[in-house]
Amino acid sequence: MNWAAPHRVCGPTPLHGPLRQSLRSEMRGRDEENRGGPRWELLKLKNPAMSESDRQTEGEESDRVDEVGRRLIVREEQLFSQDSTSEDNSRLQKDFEDLTLQIWTTVQNTFTSSSSSGQLDQLRNAVACIQQQEVQDRRWTDRPEDRLPVWRPLKCISAHNTLLHNLVESRLTEAAEDESGGTEGFSSPLKREVCHMGRRVRDDLLTVARTVTDCYPPEMDVLNVYAGLYHQSFSARLTELAASGPEISDCSYLLLWVNHFYPHTVLKHEDLDGKMRVERSSSLLLEDDLTRLEEQYLTHQEDKVKLWLSRALQKEEESWLSGANPELIDSYCYSPLAADVIQMTDRVLTESGHVIREQSRGERITAHLESFLSSYKTSVEQFVKMNQMNLRSVIKAHLVCEQQFRDYVTDPTGNLTEQQRQRCLDTLTALRDCGYRYFTCPIHLELKVCYRHLWTSVWMDGSLPVVDSLLNSLIGQLTDLKDLREACRQSLLCVVHQDVVLQYVMRMMKTKMKGREQQVGGAQRMKEDAQKINDFFTEGGCSESLWFSEVLCSIAEVLRLQDPGSVQLELVSLARAFPDLSDVHVSALLSLKTGLSAADTRSIRRSVKENRLLDVSTSHSPPFFSRVKVQSDVVQSNVVFLRSSPMWSSPMWSSPMFCSPGPVRCGPVRCGVPQVQSNVVQSNVVQSDVVFLRSSLMWSSPMWSSPMWCSSGLVQCGLVRCGVPQVQSNVVQSNVVQSDVVFLRSSPMWSSPMWCSSGPVLGLLYFLCGN
Questions:
Q1: pTM above 0.85, yes or no
Q2: Which residues are 345's β-sheet partners?
Q3: How far apart, in whole angstroms, are the C-alpha atoms of residue 592 and residue 488?
Q4: Per the record, which residues fall in region Disordered (predicted)?
Q5: pLDDT of residue 514
Q6: Quick one: 390 and 468 in the same domain?
Q7: Most buried pick, 130, 652, 704, 753, via CB within 10 A?
Q8: pLDDT of residue 708
Q9: Which residue, 235, 234, 169, 232, is CA-closest to 197?
Q10: Among 57-61, 80-84, 436-440, which is the least confidently predicted range?
Q11: Same structural domain for residues 121 and 254?
Q12: Is residue 177 part of a domain?
């Protein structure tokens, strides 16, 4: 904004007319008051000075004003030390009047060609004369008023400051009315007026700081005098303009001067900063006026940003639905949406940062960016469901947009609050995952097909290259990503790499190891597969996820080792390297080690727990095991135990209660074996089912009369504590059921804490029917 263009300066303005008449009237008034009164006689001087009028007649008009002032003081002392006529008094009074007029003319011409050394000398002499007269005023201070010269005290400094006030007012008025060049780009008279006045304030203060201050003594502090006068006059005019109800463009420009240009560009100029006592916190506008204008400005900006973002997204959606493919820039699919939104948002925020005082109020602008990203994510998700022909290229373009938005949001110099930044990142992560899923879903299907053969005999002996087949299929699917921006392609490859390793580990943890040979052989095969996977993604340019191979190799080492102490050390090392390795994961890994005793297992688990990193933040490893879903060791071991029991052959498990998807939320039972999915038992869910069962006709089933349900052990643990009434044993016992009850009651399984939970049927119903 070219508000600093040079301005027109006015020429010398001699003190004639009203000011001259005012000074003369003041002196003559004093003469009338003291006429006829006694005079105070000063000592007679040996060398009386000539009158000023006599010196002018002799052509000595070039005398310095301070020298003229000294001669007048000498005449004044001579006059009042002896008898004098009224004519002498009148002549001296007129000479003092002429002297003061000459002083004020010089002061008023301060800003006209102030760089001229001659004019600076005149101003310096005028200021020296002012000081002389102030000293002479003080000499007469202790004299009675009726014995004072009619022109004393002259009060030159007071008159000087009054003159500066009038000078500042006139210069700002002149600037406001100036129609000269330099502001042609402004669209309104208010902007031109404010620009001219602000420019005049800055230039005049710089003139005072650079040249005028050298003409004044430090005690007069002329820079702060000028600064205060300009602040008051500028503030008064801006207050009038603010009260006139300016339009939004005028409002923003007015705020720009009040909150940015004046405090930062003017007061903090290198030639002014630190030299003035003008409080930067004292605004040019009153608090009420400033708050009202800022609210008007922010409301307008909010509406503008909201409308612009809505139209930008609508235009983008229309482009998708038209079937058009995104443009190619540098051989990759590109959409200008993110760049346009970021540029517009950044421009508005930058302007708002200069226009309003509190930067925190800019949250009202960034809140619309947050809302836009949420709408943008929803639009992309809906478009993916439509599965149009241009979907693949559109997703590639918007993965680039997501990365651009993420870079903008995470920029530490940005304008978003921490809460807004986190919410925006969550939205962008969901947007990115939506795009990634489109490309990874076919890969997941391929993983399921290939990984079915892991830990089979053909995989163990190498006759079926499972991982090789998988990687060959990935080559064809990843080839289509050539027109995806390189940074986005690398990120997507890291996600695919993670999925490949995650599915590999989860498949391994579901495997039932049969012996040492299978563990050792499988471990060796795992290391070979890890190297192949690592090499594949390294060649693809994915260098940020190569640590996945370390995970596979560490797990393979756990399988290979047979000594309990070595297994313990390896698991402790793995837990410290990856703090998200939970106790459940440790139990799942140990369950693969069929050669370990129960005591060894407990000891290893305890050691891993004791030797974990106390401060997880010190680990720089990204999360991995938290993405590996495994069953709780207690649930898993008991379900395995129950599955192997002959009790499952009992006809009672064919009851609708265990096969119905409703009452106990167990879903269809495959082969009479319930599938336990959750690691957490929710008593409130089971309780509601028990209430349902109480009112159900199912309780009339003969199976509930079995001694198994009425025996003290099972009833107390499972049903009585839940408030389920006991059923009398009036039905003939089934030999199969009876044998199972004896077997179960003698099993260590009943000592598990799961049977002692207070939740309804947490013991039996949960593990038989699932959550």
A1: no
A2: none
A3: 38
A4: 1-67
A5: 72
A6: no
A7: 130
A8: 45
A9: 234
A10: 57-61
A11: yes
A12: yes
Same domain, 488 and 431: no
Contacts of 232 by beta carbon, 8 Å cutoff, 6+ apart: none
How does pLDDT run across 583-621, given as a tens digit for each residue?
999 999 998 888 889 999 999 999 999 988 776 565 567
Q: Is residue 672 part of a domain?
A: no
Q: Is 55 strand, coil or helix?
A: helix
Q: Are both 138 and 205 inside the same structural domain?
A: yes
With b for 16 or more beta-carbon neighbours within 10 A and e for fewer, the 325-355 pattern comes to: bbeeeeebbbbebbeebbebbeebbebbeeb
The residues that bridge with 670 in the sheet, in sequence order, are 673
Rounded to an integer, what distance in angstroms lies between the CA atom of residue 618 and that of residue 604?
Answer: 24
User: Residue 507: which of 456, 548, 566, 544 has the closest Cα?
Assistant: 456
Q: Indicate the pLDDT class of residue 313, thresholds 50, 70 and 90.
A: very high
Same domain, 69 and 143: yes
pLDDT tens, residue by residue, 64-117: 887 777 777 777 776 666 665 667 677 777 877 888 888 888 888 888 865 577
- Check if the beta carbon of residue 726 is closer than 8 Å to that of residue 650: no
| Joined tokens for residue 765 | 């119903």
Nearest to 528 by CA among 553, 494, 565: 553
Last residue of a domain, one of 246, 275, 304: 275
Q: By residue range, what is the domain housing residue 430? A: 289-435
Place of tokens 């229309």: 318
Please provide the size of the chain in residues: 771
Structure tokens at 13: 């303005």
**Is 219 part of any domain?**
yes
Name the CA dihedral angle for 217, 220, 222, 224, rounded to a multiple of 10 degrees: 130
249 and 298 assigned to the same domain:
no
CA distances to 120, 157, 704 from 700, in Å: 117, 113, 8
Cα 29 to Cα 135: distance, rounded to the nearest angstrom: 23
Domain co-membership, 204 together with 253: yes
CA distance 567 to 559: 8
Is residue 564 within 8 A of residue 582, CB to CB? The reply is no
Residue 372's CATH number: 1.10.357.50
Distance CA 388, CA 390 (A): 6
Question: Of 593, 627, 661, which closes a domain?
Answer: 627
* Tokens, residue 572: 């402790």
Q: Which position has the token pair 């389920």?
A: 724
DSSP state of 329: E
3-state secondary structure of 328: strand
Number of structural domains (the chain) is 3
Which two structure tokens, joined as six digits, stand for 97?
């009047």
Q: Is residue 44 in a domain? A: no
Q: Report the mean per-residue pLDDT for the chain.
A: 75
The DSSP output letter for 263 is I
